[in-house]
Amino acid sequence: MKRVWAFDIGASNGRLMVNSFDGKYMYLEEIYRFPNFPVQVTNNYYWDILNIYSEMKKAMKKSIYKGFDQIESMGIDTWGVDFGLLSNTGEILCNPYSYRNPRNIEGMERVLDQISSDELFGLTGLEIASINTLFQLYTIKEANPKLLEQAETLLLTPNLLAYLFSGQKYNEFTISSTTQMLSAFDKDWDKNILDRLSLPKDLMAPIVEPYTIAGETLPAINKEMEMDPVKVTYTAGHDTACALAALPLEDDQSIFMSCGTWVLIGVPVDDPVTHANAMKWGFTSEGTMDGYYRLQKNNMGMWLLQQSRLIWEREGITTDYENENRLFMESEPLQSLIDPDHPSFFTPNNMIEAIQQFCRDTNQVVPKTQGEIIRCILESLALKYRWVINHLEILTGKKLKRIHMGGGAIRNQILCQLTANATELKVIAGPIEASSIGNAIGQWIALGEVKNIKEAREVVKRSFPLKEYKPQDSDKWEDKYNYFNENILQG
């Protein structure tokens, strides 16, 4: 049986999974999991990239200690948009900035003074958002120009980590499609955009397709780990592209939802969608593992609940899924709603107070208890997901029939059921570790063990459990959706 290492590094935690494949079934075993949060220093948020790298090596050691030492390949996927800068000697110039830096908004505004949002969306197909790499890079140009002058190479986060293990400098297609610098027409860097903004055109490392084997782990790492060289493979670098590859979509009427700190909702499409309504409604076109695109919307996910839990922990209130489910059931349904993607929830000092203030401002019952806060979050998420799916149907001209949910947040079975209720669609949940499985799929295709995505999805169906949720209480949700759409989203 052959094995690969799948590193799935998210914006709140990272993990190493060993994916084993016997030619018919895949088997997944978690080796190590570690927290990963941006670090605030003065007025900036950074990623501690060397700590991530150190934790990854720790995970490799644990894998070898457990007997998983004959590894064919390793692949890395992460969240999108963030990056590191290398000097001409290959040194990392500073800890990478986090997309949560508030000053990126100013950078975005300065860019849009020079290239209109309509034009930029038409060139890239990407939602105009302050987190995008282009705006971050322009912010550095304005606020820290000497850093950019010293930089020779920009590597996006999964490719930066791959560089630390292999020494190879490339940016992979799917993660590159999150930058607002990738041309919607030829899958290459739009150097016209960079030139108009006086950004260095040669900074961007060349783009490679998924399934590319970059090379092998560096001799120093092999010596440190006491292991044989391992191939370093560019699987899909973006975690959502990995998750989509692992979801067993049935046809072109299937919706995917990659569920974690963020929830990405969309459908596969052949080409980027760049017309006006897509931009108006906040949709974006990003790359897929098989070289196409996914028309999707980035939505708030478990961030709201994660941040609320931090407040409860500070107050000495411990919680877990079982307790949260009980508190949810004890609270009144559909009495307090928020727009989960409202700017006030992006980086609040106190998430619970931000939720309560939103409800006051919209003349609703203010949730006070833990159960009321949990219910407010989860029901609001489900209703927002219905809004997204309704607009996907308009953009594609298709009647969408089912939802495939994958990712760690589907452990929250209440969220899965509420999503079915609110959308009035059947939900097929699984696999939980969709990003890690998709990461491994990219490696197995690169290694020639699996033919393509279609074949890989059949392997996933055989190998991992799926759970179905059917809509309930349709009338109640229909009325509340109309209220949500008219008073919460528009209010």
From TrEMBL:
Residues 6-244 form the Carbohydrate kinase FGGY N-terminal domain. Keywords: ATP-binding, Disulfide bond, Kinase, Nucleotide-binding, Rhamnose metabolism, Transferase. GO terms for biological process: glycerol metabolic process; rhamnose catabolic process. SUPFAM superfamilies: Actin-like ATPase domain. GO terms for molecular function: ATP binding; glycerol kinase activity; rhamnulokinase activity. Residues 257-446 form the Carbohydrate kinase FGGY C-terminal domain. Pfam families: FGGY_C, FGGY_N. Belongs to the FGGY kinase family. PANTHER family: L-RHAMNULOKINASE, SUGAR KINASE. This is Rhamnulokinase. The lineage of its organism: Bacteria, Bacillati, Bacillota, Bacilli, Bacillales.
